[in-house]
Amino acid sequence: MASSRYGRMKLSAEKQALLQRLLQQQGLTAQTEQKSIQREQTVPLSFAQQRVWFLHQIEPTSSNFHMLTGLRLLGDLHVDALEASLNEMIRRHDILRTTFPVVHGSPVQHIGPAYTLKLEPVVLVNLSEQEQKQEIIRTIRKDKQKPFHLESGPLLRVYLFATRENEHILFLSLHHIIADAWSMGILSQELSQLYDAFVNERPSPLPPLAVQYADFVQWQQERVQGERGNAQLHYWLQRLSDSPAPLALPTDHPRHARQGYSGHTFSFTLDAALHEKLIALCQREGVTLVMLMLAAFQVLLSRYTGQEDIAVGLPVSNRTRTDFEPLIGNFVNTVVIRADLKENPTFRTILQRVKADALDAYSNQDIPFERVVEALRPVRDPGRTVLFQVLFSLQNAYREQELTGLVCLPFEVEDNAFYGE
Fold it and tell me: The Condensation domain covers which part of the protein (predicted)?
């Protein structure tokens, strides 16, 4: 059986076999593995968590790992139901109760008991609109400046502002060591389902989780050991041993000797007609939208740099088992996709090369990026990242928040700008 969010669809035996073979080629499983790996008293960190933990030790006051999401809620908000929904998610997901103490010189995961989060709205009703904006910006900036304490937690903070009689602003702030972009979608979906149930005085509709994040960590460590892990590492050593020269993007200022984090965001919109044409092209060429956009992006980088071997980092969800999909946690890994543009190939040729490279990368995504770097031992430059200098990410899993009886609008505070009008 193959399932979708629209229900279950029967496949013939031949199609089931083909689906299973295609999934296996990409390192995936079609069925949920029933056996939950037993956790021991001390749970190690996943490879992604090790990376974040290490960087946090270098810059403990940095806000680079703060994951902040905001919503404007219009309508009659039931604060008690919202509070109960958040507490049910804390009870349901071990990772939301996890801290990271150091034991015998190494960080470990400590899963604490369920705790009760008290949601107390900050009442701003009597302030002018400008004063409300200033107060919200001040609070969120304060959150960014307030470091998360990985050893003691909590690593989830919630802010609720009452701005008008039937209007609230909700912010969730998490540390990246316990969540990734996929996790934010799970938070959104579960919050919607739980709030709907609790507003209508029904029990939680969510099924028990088959495994927890700690089970993934145990599984991951076994996965990268032995023959399979060696084969995947060998693939990356072959693919990246002759990594291209760093991207020489033209800039209007000299490059700093060390990396910084003072970049900005530039946003633009592609119209619906162009999007439809891109989807049609994907269907004709047998590629995904990620592959198409990545190929176009690499061609663009080649035009700007004059280089013909373009390496770009691509984040992957790393949830290669179906029972990992509903879990909150930091699963993400990074793979490197190279585009060979020598001898001026057609874009269709480039696209098919990127497709082949991406499929191979997906099949070898279990090996953490850091282990690949350790094995390759590239020359280090404090002003650049190793193996790739540009990261490409297509965020195409956006899900609009829905809460019963409320209109939910995205709400963002970034630098000096105030969004949400």
Answer: 40-399
Residue 2 lies in a domain: no
**Mean of the pLDDT values across residues 102-106?**
92
The mean of the pLDDT values for the chain is 86
157-208 pLDDT, tens digit per residue, is: 999 999 999 999 999 999 999 999 999 999 999 999 999 999 999 999 999 9
Q: What is the DSSP letter of 360?
A: H
Distance (Å, whole) CA 240 – CA 339:
12
CA 41 – CA 240 distance, rounded (Å): 38
Q: Are residues 64 and 177 in the same domain?
A: yes
Q: Taking residues 324-338, report their average pLDDT.
A: 95
Phi, psi torsion values for 115, nearest 5 degrees:
-125, 165
CATH of the domain at 185: 3.30.559.10
pLDDT attached to residue 41? 59
- Residues 250 and 91: their CA atoms lie apart, in Å, by 50
Interval 29-41: pLDDT, tens: 444 443 454 454 5
Q: E strands within 133-292?
A: 156-164, 167-175
pTM to 2 decimals? Answer: 0.82
Cα separations (Å) of 417 from 129, 135, 280, 389?
Answer: 15, 13, 37, 28
Q: Give every CB contact of residue 8 below 8 A, 6+ residues apart in sequence.
A: 1, 2
DSSP tag of 410: E
pLDDT at 28 over 60: no
Domain range for residue 405? 47-207+401-418
For residue 328, give the nearest of 411, 209, 241, 158 by alpha carbon.
Answer: 209
> What's the structural domain count of the chain?
2
CA distances 148 to 50, 91, 176, 215, Å, are 16, 20, 10, 24
Q: Is 385 left (phi over 0), alpha (psi -120 to 50) or beta?
A: beta
